[in-house]
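Input (structure):
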C-alpha cells in the first residue's frame, strides 16, 4: 500500500475538520524515511484542504470589533497576493506563519504596533513618538506608557484564495492558509556560487482579508488616537507587513479588494511594464496527486502536478541573477556580493534591499499564456542619495532581463511546442505595448527591425547599466576591458571576457527557432542525447551555459553563452554562425573592429 503520512498507518487519527494545522503536527511521521519530502507535501496539503476555521475565525473577528467598540476604530485590509508574519520553524524545518494558542492564523498585535511605530519614526523622528507609543525612559511620566491598544488581528474565514489547491469546491473557511514554496537555487559559497535547487515548503496566507482593531486608552485624546490610526494605515499600505516584503509578500490595500488599475501607482513605484509570459510558467509548488508504485525503482513515487502562479519573487530572483552575471564581469567578487545585498537584500549580513517587485494580475490566464504587470518600487528604507541611480540601474536591468531570457521553468530556452508531453517547453517573456502607452515607453521598448541597429541599442542599454553601477559603487568601471572570472568549474555564469552575446536570425526546424534548433541538432549531441555540457543535466543538477530568447516581433534570437573558452561552447557558436542567415555580436572581447 502507498506510504501513509501518519505514524501508525494501521490506525490513523481522524481529527475533526475544525482542528488546526497544529493538531496535524502531533501525528507527523518520522522524518527518517525515503519518501519524507512527498509525505511532508501530502500532510501539508491535507492540513490546508481539510481546514475549516469558519466558526472560530468568525467569532474572533467579531471579538476584535467588540473590543474596539464605539470608541475605537476598525480597519479592514486585503492582501492582494500573499503574506507571512512571524511564526516559527516546525518539524522538518517547515516555516509556519504566526498561529495563536488555538492554532488560528493571525497578525500579532505587537507586529501591528511595530508597523505603526516604524511609520511614525519615518514621519516625525524617533525622538517625537513617546507621547504616542510610550517610552520607559521618558522624562515626562505621562509619556512612559503608550496611548493606544492594538488588538490581535484575524483573517475573515471567507477569502478569495483563488490559487490555493483545493479538494472541495466550497470555500473552506481557512482564512487564506495556503501552501507556498521557496527555492534558493543559487547561493554564495565564499567567492563562488553554488547551483543547488532546494525547494522548501511552507505556509503563508493567500489573498486574506483582515479585521484590525484599535482602541484609545484612558487619557488618550482624539487627535493622538487619530494620528496613531493614520500611521498604522499608512504603514500597512505603504510599507507592508511581515517577511519578504521586497519580493511581493505582505502588500496590503484597504478593503473592499480593488481591481488595481494600471494607472494607480503603488507606494514607491518608479517603473512598470505589462508583460506576456508563454510556456512552462512559474510554479509555486507541485500539487500532491497520488502515490504510484515504480517497478523499476522498487519504491513508491509521486508524480506532482505543477501549480502555475505568476510570482513576483521569480521576477526579482531573475533580476538578481542578471545583475550578478553583469557585475561579476567588471567588479571584484566581494564588491559584487556587497552591492547585490544592498540592492536585492541579504541574509548574512541581514539587509533589507533597495528594490521591491510586485506583479499585478493581467487580463489573460490561459493554459500556456499569462499576462500581468511587473512593478518596481523603492522601499522606505532606501537612502535618498541612492534612489536615482538605483532607478536607472534597475530600469536598464529590466530591459536586459526581457531580452536575454525567460522567467520560471525553462527560462533558458524560448517557448516551443512539442507533439508529446510536456507539450510546451521553455519560457518566453515579452513586453506588451498597447494604445495607452506613452511615447517614452514606446521608445524605451521598441526594437529596431534592422539587426545591426538592434545591436547598437543593446550595447547602449548595457553601457547605461554599467554607468549606473559605477555611480552606485563609486568605482571606475571599464566594460571594454572585462574581467576573466576564474572558478574551479569549467565556466561561470558571468558576462565577462569569456562570455559571448550574439543576435541571430535563421530558419526554424522542428518547430524550434534557429538558435535552439542548432543547440539541439544531431551534430552537437553526445551518445545520442543532448550534451549535458551544453544543455545542462538533471542528475546531478547542472545549469546550461547557453541562454536563448526569441524576440518574436522581429524574429531575432539573442544568445548568451558563458565560458566560450571551452570546446563545447566554441563548437556550438561555430555551428550557429554557419547556419544562421544573420549573425552579429553584441558582447565579445576583444571587440571586433
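Output (sequence):
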Amino acid at each position: 500500500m502507498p506510504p501513509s503520512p501518519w505514524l501508525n498507518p494501521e490506525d490513523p487519527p481522524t481529527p475533526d475538520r475544525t482542528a488546526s494545522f497544529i493538531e496535524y503536527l502531533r501525528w507527523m511521521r518520522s522524518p527518517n524515511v525515503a519518501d519524507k519530502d512527498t509525505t511532508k507535501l501530502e500532510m501539508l496539503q491535507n492540513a490546508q484542504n481539510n481546514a475549516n476555521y469558519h466558526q472560530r475565525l468568525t467569532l474572533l473577528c467579531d471579538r476584535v470589533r467588540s473590543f474596539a467598540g464605539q470608541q475605537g476604530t476598525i480597519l479592514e485590509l486585503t492582501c492582494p497576493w500573499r503574506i507571512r508574519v512571524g511564526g516559527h520553524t516546525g518539524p522538518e524545518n517547515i516555516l509556519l506563519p504566526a498561529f495563536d494558542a488555538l492554532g488560528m492564523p493571525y497578525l500579532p498585535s505587537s507586529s501591528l504596533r511595530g508597523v505603526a511605530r516604524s511609520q511614525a519614526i519615518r514621519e516625525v523622528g524617533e525622538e517625537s513618538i513617546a507621547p504616542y507609543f510610550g517610552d520607559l525612559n521618558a522624562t515626562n511620566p505621562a509619556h512612559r506608557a503608550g496611548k493606544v491598544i492594538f488588538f490581535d488581528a484575524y483573517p475573515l474565514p471567507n477569502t478569495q484564495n483563488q490559487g490555493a489547491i483545493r479538494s472541495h469546491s466550497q470555500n473552506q473557511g481557512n482564512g487564506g492558509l495556503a501552501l507556498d514554496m521557496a527555492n534558493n537555487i543559487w547561493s554564495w559559497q565564499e567567492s563562488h556560487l553554488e547551483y543547488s535547487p532546494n525547494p522548501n515548503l511552507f505556509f503563508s496566507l493567500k489573498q486574506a482579508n483582515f479585521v484590525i482593531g484599535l482602541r484609545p486608552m484612558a487619557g488618550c485624546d482624539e487627535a493622538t488616537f487619530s494620528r496613531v490610526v493614520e500611521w498604522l494605515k499608512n504603514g500597512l499600505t505603504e510599507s507592508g507587513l511581515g517577511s519578504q516584503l521586497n519580493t511581493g509578500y505582505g502588500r496590503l490595500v484597504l478593503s473592499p479588494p480593488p481591481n488595481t488599475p494600471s494607472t494607480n501607482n503603488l507606494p514607491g513605484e518608479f517603473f512598470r511594464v505589462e508583460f506576456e509570459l508563454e510556456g512552462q510558467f512559474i510554479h509555486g509548488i507541485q500539487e500532491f496527486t497520488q502515490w504510484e508504485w515504480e517497478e523499476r525503482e522498487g519504491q513508491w513515487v509521486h508524480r506532482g502536478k505543477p501549480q502555475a502562479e505568476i510570482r513576483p519573487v521569480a521576477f526579482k530572483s531573475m533580476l538578481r541573477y542578471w545583475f550578478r552575471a553583469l557585475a561579476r564581469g567588471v567588479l571584484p567578487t566581494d564588491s559584487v556580493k556587497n552591492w547585490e545585498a544592498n540592492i536585492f537584500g541579504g541574509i548574512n549580513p541581514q539587509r533589507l534591499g533597495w528594490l521591491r517587485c510586485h506583479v499585478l494580475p493581467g487580463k489573460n490566464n490561459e493554459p500556456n499564456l499569462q499576462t500581468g504587470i511587473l512593478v518596481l518600487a523603492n522601499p522606505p528604507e532606501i537612502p535618498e542619495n541612492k534612489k536615482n541611480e538605483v532607478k536607472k540601474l534597475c530600469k536598464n536591468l529590466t530591459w536586459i532581463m526581457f531580452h536575454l531570457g525567460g522567467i520560471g521553468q525553462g527560462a533558458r530556452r524560448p517557448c516551443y511546442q512539442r507533439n508529446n508531453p510536456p507539450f510546451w517547453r521553455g519560457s518566453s517573456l515579452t513586453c506588451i505595448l498597447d494604445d495607452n502607452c506613452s511615447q517614452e515607453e514606446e521608445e524605451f521598448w521598441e526594437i529596431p527591425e534592422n539587426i545591426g541597429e538592434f545591436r547598437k541599442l543593446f550595447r547602449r542599454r548595457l553601457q547605461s547599466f554599467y554607468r549606473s553601477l559605477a555611480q552606485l559603487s563609486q568605482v571606475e568601471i571599464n566594460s571594454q576591458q572585462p574581467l576573466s572570472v576564474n572558478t574551479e568549474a569549467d565556466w561561470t555564469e558571468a558576462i565577462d571576457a569569456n562570455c559571448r552575446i550574439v543576435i541571430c536570425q535563421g530558419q526554424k526546424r522542428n518547430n524550434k527557432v534557429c538558435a535552439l534548433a542548432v543547440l539541439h541538432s544531431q551534430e552537437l549531441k553526445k551518445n545520442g542525447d543532448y550534451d549535458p555540457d551544453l544543455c545542462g543535466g538533471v542528475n546531478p543538477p547542472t545549469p546550461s551555459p547557453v541562454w536563448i530568447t526569441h524576440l518574436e516581433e522581429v524574429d531575432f534570437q539573442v544568445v548568451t553563452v558563458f565560458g566560450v573558452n571551452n570546446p563545447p561552447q566554441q563548437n556550438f557558436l561555430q555551428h550557429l554562425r554557419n547556419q544562421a542567415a544573420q549573425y552579429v555580436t553584441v558582447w565579445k572581447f576583444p571587440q571586433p573592429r
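Notes: Residues 451-473 form the longest helix (23 residues). The CA atoms of residues 329 and 495 lie 5 Å apart.
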